[in-house]
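Model: Ready when you are.
Researcher: Fold this.
Model:
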Amino acid sequence: MVPRLRSVVSQLLVAPGNRVVVSQYHQAIPTSALFFSVSSLRILFGEMNAAVARAARGMPQFGKRVFLMSPPLFPVGLGPGIVQCPAGGGLVDGQSRQSRVSQDVLTVDHPFTFCGSEEFWIISADSGIHPSRAGHAQFAAALGRLVDQEGLMAPAP
């Protein structure tokens, strides 16, 4: 994964003046993978994000023309966490923003500890991994913060 991502970024950098923002993945609990534990999926996404970070940070242009974006947390609705679920049940990573289908399964699998919501940042219609319009808005906000922080906005003509 690291060599391929570096290759793609290098190709994008061929054009002078290009700047590339490499984004890590959001935490998703895909409906197609619910036979894995949430802990296993968190490890899997953590490993993928570590590889993305290694690829970006290992580029000689990192911090100049290559930047790394961490997406916002897409809460699962389970612990460990520091957020008290409004419905009770203890400390979680936040009210779940997973797909409706994933939240339905998590409700059944963790009836006393799951913290669900009616806000879905992931669409249910496919695999339960792709962001919804609300999820894409979270990515856009994170990108906006990075653009502001790094001064990446091109000057107005």
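Researcher: Now this one.
Model:
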Amino acid sequence: MPHITFDQSLPAALSRTENLPSLPAVAVEVLRLSKNDDCTLDEMARVLGRDPALSAKILKLSNSSLFGLGREITTLQRATMVLGLKSVKLMALSFSLASSLPKEGQAGGFRFQEFWLRSLISAVASRSLARLVSSGNPDEAFLCGLLSHIGRLVISQVLPEDYATLQENTRSWPTLREEEEHLGFHNGDVAGALLQAWELPSIVVHAVAFRGRPDELPADVGEDVRELVKLMALSDPTEGILCDIEKGAPLRLIHERAAGFGMIPSEVDSFLIGLESGINETAEMLKVTLPDNLSHERLVEQAHEQVVRVSLGTKVDENRSRDRRQAVDNDRGIQRIDGKKDPLTGLPDREFFDSFLEQQISARTHGRVPRALGVLLFEIDHFGLLADSHGTESADEVMRSVGSTLRRTTRKGDMPARYGKGSFALVAPQTTPFGLKTMAERLRQMIEAEQIEFQGEEILVTVSCGGACIARSAALQDGKRLVKLADRFLLRAQEAGSNRCEIYSRVQFPGR
């Protein structure tokens, strides 16, 4: 892989290696072992074991949603075996480097909280995208994302006044062009110089240095680098949607770029919402305090609202907006029909659920609503034993609590209902298998986190969930087929040990 030649206009304060931050000792040792072809898993585990804080982060990571292994890992040796040497090496580098960077300081008003938020978004988004498109380098993508803004941090530390002036003159995070116009150079070259001085793998150096400028990549770099840079190009608008005041333009951009990976807009929206848990988990591991922003779901809604507002400039766009709102009304308006509610939970009852689902299927069968439709079924684990051991009143209290959680936390437009004794259902009028899985896991975790007290005793409640969605409906009986398919996956979740979600991964019925 070629050696990068950096911009000669870099000032001496930035171009001299001795003025750049030094590599942490553990990271140096991990890199040394990485270059040794004879390095064993046990040897890597022993090196990591010398740093208890880093070892704890690796263990937390192995049990986080980023890896989703489905079983608890309690020892560093086991984590190294399950994750593999490459993953442990790259994640150890990621956390070691991140832990050595300042969380706050006196760098001319540098926005440290925004730096960390954007770095975490880029890391989690890049890794999630890599896994989504079956890239062979998801862990490299995480490391590149985590280091994607390190050049800005270095500039702010070495030239604080200059960078502070630049930040004051830009509404959002300074772009490469704005940095070059103001400083005569940009953070990409600074990051490249630093990571090359640290002797990080060439794939990481190139991907971070050329993030945001793929056309400038050397002609002889490998396809792995080009793929990483392409993945990271999606993290830029992702940051914009989740961090900037102006969200409409980044939303349009990410939809456009994601189409190159075969992702449709609804899948992009689900992807953006699904990043929330991974970002929060990673922030906790690195002891980074994130801003008290709205949920990802609401931020994505705001981006869509801004796109709609911009589109109202012409009569044609007004008509399109009206049609779009009408389509939403077709989805949501059904909820406004008169229907019976379950007196115990306050949710719509089974009859209302059946009616709502039937009308949603009818709208899609006749082409009025060309959107995917999903169904989730939740069943309280061991509900019969709960009533036997604590009495029917405690079971009622549990039903009320679960119903309240579903009512409070489901998206606008989705319809939760009481489905039966100890069970609930939810209709999601616009989703994908990925989005349905994300939604199901979020609701399952929130139900498990609820503290339910009955007669001075705390009752721990978990649920199992099964779900399925279809991209289109061809017959009115498809509603019953969808519920039956979701029920099959609910049974699979229960047979796998309960307190888990199983979602059908395709968007058409089996056999089609």
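Researcher: Key takeaway?
Model: Residues 22-100 form one domain.
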